[in-house]
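Throughout this chapter, every protein is written as a compact record of paired, labelled lines. An example of such a record is reproduced below:
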Amino acid sequence: MSMDRVAWSSLHNLTRAKSGSTPFTKATLKRVLKFAVPHRNRLIAFILLSIVAAVLAVATPVLAGKVVDAIVARTDFNVILWLAIMIAVVAIVEAGVGLLVRWLSSMIGEGVIVDLRTAVFDHVQKMPIAFFTRTRTGALVSRLNNDVIGAQAAFAGTLSGVVSNVVALVLTLIVMLDKSWLVTVLAMILLPIFLIPARRMGSRLADLRRESAAHNAAMGTQMTERFSAPGATLVKLFGRPDEESREFALRAERVRDIGVRTAMLQFTFVTALTLVSALALSLVYGLGGWLALGGQLAPGDVVVLALLLTRLYAPLTSLSNARLEIMSALVSFERVFEILDLKPLIEAKPNARSAPQGPLAVEFKDVRFSYPAADKVSLASLEDVSILDTRGGEEVLHGISFRVEPGQTVALVGSSGAGKSTIAQLLSRLYDVDSGAVLLGGSTPGAGVDVRDLSFESLRQSMGMVTQDGHLFHETLASNLRLARPDATDEDMWDVLRQARLEDMVRSLPDGLETVVGERGYRLSGGERQRLTIARLLIVQPRIVILDEATAALDSSNEAAVQAALGVALEGRTAVVIAHRLSTIRAADAILVVEGGNIVERGTHTELLALGGRYAELYNTQFAEATSVAEEALPEI
């Protein structure tokens, strides 16, 4: 290895290490080793071959020295030939071993990446909705990318590097001291001249790279937010494009300046260390040559010492950086483990069962619920705050009890924040109740099965939900429909599109079912997007339907089309409907008025109007507003 390569390797290791690392703990080590267990055979082979590579690296200079001695002694040419052949064989074997080490390193490293990413991804999917409402998506994605790759370095690079460098250092020192202890000690004196600038300049380069990464992350966030359909719309309506451009340009220019400064520091660093290597070699050749002329050292030993010099500096500098590399990897592991240590609030029981067969009743039995506090579902580092919000944990539902018979429709109405959507989320088990129970099935009150005793698969097959935003993925129409039922055929999809009043529109599209709907479905109108979510619900054929403000954001014409599709979705099914527009739920079998986490009124539309309570107040207010709007729209005569 040349001194230039040593310099670049040392520089890379120093700038990669992170500051403010956490102490090494046995608990962290045990968790790290769990990820190594599936790769233990490759890891053992990797370490053994790394040792072989270190031995071969020392063998070549020793053989080269023997060649020089043979030439000086005018030995038979056959001896020189055999030595040359041995050097060639060692080189070939070293190259082959190097390829194997590299292959094993890649397999172990990439395998760890797969294991870590899969573990984090699977764990995040189990987290409650509160986790996603608090967490910055970019910070979470960074854990699955940057930190997982940082953790990989502990297996792929640091571990093998420490083993091979220790072996190489010991063998090199033994050989050099055997040849000349004086030359070896004097060469070691130059080592601080090598390490001091490496550490100081490496630290400065690390700071510059962290700053550059921060600016690049900020630009990435700006582009992600501004280039999304909602973000671009917001900027065009309220933003200031010139200031947006100026802010982006300032960051880009700073990244450019850092790039130029980094390049110059790197060149200065390598130049300085190349100078140190020249001084070290001059010492070896000068002092070694003087000793050789005095008969105290063989000429070949001078060559051996010169060739081994760089092989001495390389492991010494790498080992001096090993602690920083290990701490850097541990920081990455700790950040990944932070995610894995967040306990999912919703988990299926080991003996989870299937929902009862046939039509299902829905029953809430004295349900009380509080949204979890931030420290139960989130991390300060994922929210980009220093301290988590301490609010939360206050009860929002106070003893809710009601029953929906199979095939009936119950509507929930009330003020915003009264607890209606919370009831829907508890029914679909996006959260679990604090006390009481949510029951499915049962011919009599209290005889149903607790949703917490059901498997997630059975719950999703039994229940479908349409929310106000009608979210769609940036995929094809077919992919969005098959999200609910992967085995659905084209005929199944056309059938539900027909029921959702979308068949003619989809058939008019050039790509039909393979049409990409765009981010969040923005290539479709609001009404089309909502009807597609209804089609997605219908394709599951659920026995229970939950509608959470499904038409609140639509105009009158779109609302009529969606209501027609909803009529099909509700037919013959048990339904819980949350409605803002009270005119849409007058035909419900029962209406529950929710205020402050309590059911304050219940009955049919006619009964509640006659009661003259909160429902009548809400209905009359909406009726008066609608009449006022209609009168204002009349032309003047």
